[in-house]
Design goal:
Number of strands: 9
Structural class: alpha+beta
Number of helices: 4
Shape: globular
Oligomer: single chain
Length: 154
Amino acid sequence: MKLDIRKYIRCLLFVLPFLLNSCNQEDDINEIFVSGQWQLVNYYTGIDWNNYNANAKPTYTKPEDLKVINAFSIMFNDDGTVQGNIENGTYSGKWQANAKDRSIRITQIECTVSLSGKNKEFIDKLKNVQFYQGDNIMLRLAPNERTTCMQFRH
């Protein structure tokens, strides 16, 4: 029996969109967010939101600054709560994301320490995030203009 490759390709092209569209967007959000603890890498300016490989400028480059901010963490829980570590304290709040427009909100943030310095900067940035990009290895959170971002890693 001879296989007609053209029929095979047409069949594959017909079925492929259904297979790709059947992915549950909720699963994508859970894969990204509810996948464990994220550590802050740095804040970046001058980013091209549509190009992961574009040359963005890190805000902090001194080892002593990086030591502090790299200890900041965030964990998104599947019940809609968020928690994490800041310098000498912790914080908690609520989160909600939408896979269709890749929007995210982090609200009702409460901290166990008084905010100043890099702690305040981090929490203020969390309060202002509106969009996300990422996968289960890297996560970027950005405010509305998407020319700056916070980058996290597992």
